[in-house]
């Protein structure tokens, strides 16, 4: 009888223990699940409304809506990479949430998630994807929040290589240099940006902040291409040569 009692009591205990584990696991999933889902597309209408137009159109329609007019419009402008651009949109929401996160651990998690999504876009983007400089600059900004200066430097540099006059690619790293006490280096970097985009309000303002005078910056003059040179030479030759008779010109057609 004692054995039967011990067996009969052990079974309920084992069952209750298993049930408790299931409940705990369910609670953990309930706590973790929404956060993960939120970072991968479970956004509020308010959050989506703050995103760029292409993000709103990308997120407000089913994942595979290639035939939808909105997708056709953005696909024509962005190419095939538009089908991956939702990761960029997710990153923007993650970064916004990070700025309002209640603690350092949550901010770090959200920023890291954003960087992963941004790098996904870069890794899957076509060579001519028009948002590449902006995506790289966003990676740079996010990396600075994690104090990953090597990643930030590389990201800003990639953005500048792709779009030499893109202000955020200069200002982000110039601020790092300035905070590190390298004011001259910061000013020189902004000056390089101004040479490519002399009318940029952001770069002009930054240059003044670092002690420079935008009016003294000499704009960059791109070298003439070989085709341009050939056309110029042909035009010059045509201008110096005698005009052909109208009959000759007609007969040559």
Can you walk through the features of this model?
By secondary structure, the chain is mainly alpha-helical. The protein has a domain at 39-127. Helix content is 71%, strand content 0%. It has helices at 2-39, 45-49, 53-59, 69-78, 86-99, 104-124, 132-145, 149-162, 167-179, 183-196, 201-209, 226-240, 246-251. Helix 6 runs antiparallel to helix 7 and helix 7 runs parallel beside helix 9. The longest helix has 38 residues, at 2-39. The N and C termini lie far apart (117 Å). Residues 1-39 and 226-253 have low confidence and may be disordered.
Index terms:
253 residues, mainly alpha, disordered N terminus, single chain, globular
What sort of overall outline do the alpha carbons produce when their principal axes are compared? Answer: globular
Radius of gyration: 29 Å
Q: Estimate the mean pLDDT confidence.
A: 78
The tally of helices reads 13
Uncertain ranges? 1-39, 226-253
User: What letter string, H or E per element, gives the SSE order?
Assistant: HHHHHHHHHHHHH
Q: How many strand units? A: 0
Classify the helix fraction into a percent range: over 70%
Structural class: mainly alpha
What percent strand? Answer: under 5%
Largest sheet: none
Distance between the termini: 117 Å
Question: Concise description?
Answer:
This protein is mainly alpha-helical and 253 residues long. The protein has helices at 2-39, 45-49, 53-59, 69-78, 86-99, 104-124, 132-145, 149-162, 167-179, 183-196, 201-209, 226-240, 246-251. The protein is globular, with a radius of gyration of 29 Å.
